[in-house]
Design goal:
The complex is a heterodimer of chains A (268) and B (170).
Chain A: E1 3-8, H1 19-34, E2 39-46, E3 73-82, H2 90-94, E4 100-105, H3 108-116, E5 122-124, H4 137-146, E6 149-153, H5 161-177, E7 183-186, H6 198-207, H7 212-217, H8 221-235, H9 264-267
Parallel strand pairs in A: 1-2, 2-3, 3-4, 4-5, 5-6, 6-7
Helix pairs in contact in A: 3-4
Chain B: E1 6-14, H1 24-28, H2 31-38, H3 48-71, E2 76-81, E3 86-92, H4 96-104, E4 108-109, E5 112-113, E6 115-122, H5 125-144
Antiparallel strand pairs in B: 1-3, 1-6, 2-3, 4-5
Helix pairs in contact in B: 3-4
Classes of the chains: A alpha/beta (268), B alpha+beta (170).
């Protein structure tokens, strides 16, 4: 299985997307499928200020991309942008409605909070910008020790020189600070032409100094861990035990042959 | 006698999906439909020379003189089919990863936006060729089943002829 955990949902608020937005999302999914990805997460980005509705907090309607459900395994994900440490209350409301929860910390304090305390699966940093803080080994590893993974989005830097420069530097910084552990690679772009095959994306990390097996894990094992974490939060008894044949794929059939029976206990 | 070792990179050029294509929505509904959309023949003329130039350019902009010097030496296109957009390039073994990264970072060929995807890295031209033929055939079978792709049928059945070069230098 090859995962891309960041396919942006066209809207960043609770309005419903237009027909053309859905069409371009479908085109993107078609290309991802052709590039060999099997597990996709649609990412809904939420600014801190946006008020959550009282009813359903998940605007992603998987029925809109129904035809892809037999071809790709599609998950939903929410990303919360955190500027101010004091107001992250929204997180507890979002907890049960999405398969994956991630945050984008905008300050060092927010990063520390996300790394040490928040109930999340991923920390996504804007690597195509100059980071406003220095990535410290202690902060980063406190996250990886808890099983919270860092996400690298390669999509934005493909088309822009300056972003590319920042990306290379920042990713090197993350590789150093995380001691080469706990990274997830995903696209994070809504431009279909900025998508790359997993070999190419992984190869870029190899060029940046990650060894091949670890680089490969950033699109296979690590994102699976994140998805598994999310599944445990939703469906498990005390975050530890779920019974089933194939936990990640349990709700829908995916075209090719299923993976062998596995219990979640084996994976932990 | 020591062989000079190279790597052969099989690549595929992907063009943007045509916005104006009729029944775009319907084609996206099935896998073969989407494949036929993605693998339309290009609107621009792409020659092996253009591809090599783009790779060199990308090496230069992303990895500078060092990258161009290390990776650009052996760089030659062994085969490129404009119809199926599949091709093989020969690169030196040490700089394979660098060249692949440069290929990945290409966004344009002759000012038209494209994505170039590496399908396989192989140590011998024969295996690269086999991969290419297998893929071409597989695609043509999928596409021929689909009405949208019928015009593309038998595009890939053409023989692949790749000049063997004398690798057995000292």
């Amino acid at each position: 299985m090859i995962c891309d955990l960041n396919v942006p949902w066209p809207r960043t608020d609770y309005s419903s997307p237009t027909g053309s937005e859905i069409l371009s999302l479908k085109k993107q999914l078609a290309i991802l499928e052709e590039l060999g990805y099997t597990h996709i997460a649609l990412n809904f980005t939420l600014d801190q200020g946006v008020k959550l509705p009282s009813g359903n907090v998940n605007p992603i309607d998987l029925k809109l991309v129904q035809e892809f459900q037999s071809r790709l395994k599609i998950f939903t994900r929410v990303t919360l942008i955190i500027d101010d440490v004091s107001s992250h209350q929204g997180l507890s409301k979002l907890n049960t409605s999405f398969d994956l929860i991630s945050v984008i910390p905008r300050s060092e304090k927010a990063l520390q909070l996300a790394a040490s305390n928040l109930e999340i699966d991923l920390i996504s940093l804007p690597f195509h910008q100059r980071l406003p803080f220095y990535l410290k080994h202690k902060t980063v590893c406190s996250a990886t020790d808890r099983g919270v993974l860092f996400e690298i989005n390669y999509g934005d830097m493909i088309s822009d020189d300056l972003k590319r420069r920042n990306f290379f530097g920042n990713v090197k910084g993350l590789i150093r600070a995380s001691r080469k552990r706990g990274m997830v690679l995903s696209s994070g772009t809504s431009d279909p032409l900025s998508l790359r095959g997993s070999f190419d994306a992984v190869n870029l990390l190899v060029v940046l100094g990650l060894d091949y097996s670890r680089a490969q894990a950033t699109v296979t094992e690590q994102p699976t861990k994140a998805l598994l974490n999310g599944r445990l939060r939703l469906k498990s008894h005390k975050q530890a035990v779920v019974m089933g044949t194939d936990i990640l794929n349990d709700s829908e059939n995916i075209g090719h042959k299923r993976r062998k029976v596995e219990t979640i206990v084996d994976r932990i | 006698m020591v062989r000079i070792k190279n790597r052969y990179v099989v690549f595929n050029v992907i063009y943007p999906i045509d916005e104006t294509a009729e029944s775009l929505e319907a084609a996206l509904k099935t896998k073969s439909g989407s494949l036929s959309l993605i693998h339309q023949p290009p609107a621009i003329a792409i020659t092996p020379k253009v591809v090599v130039q783009a790779i060199r350019q990308s090496l230069q902009t992303n990895f500078g003189d060092y990258g161009n010097g290390v990776g650009g030496g052996v760089l030659t296109v062994k085969y490129f089919s404009e119809k199926s957009s599949l091709g093989i390039i020969k690169v030196s073994r040490e700089s394979t990863r660098l060249v692949c990264a440069a290929i990945m970072l290409i966004t344009r060929l002759q000012a038209s936006p494209v994505t170039i995807r590496v399908l396989r890295v192989s140590g011998s031209v024969k295996k690269a060729e086999e991969m290419l033929i297998k893929r071409g055939k597989g695609l043509s079978i999928i596409l021929s089943k689909n009405s949208v792709g019928q015009s593309l049928d038998s595009l890939f059945d053409q023989d692949v002829h790749i000049e063997k070069d004398s690798d057995e230098e000292q």
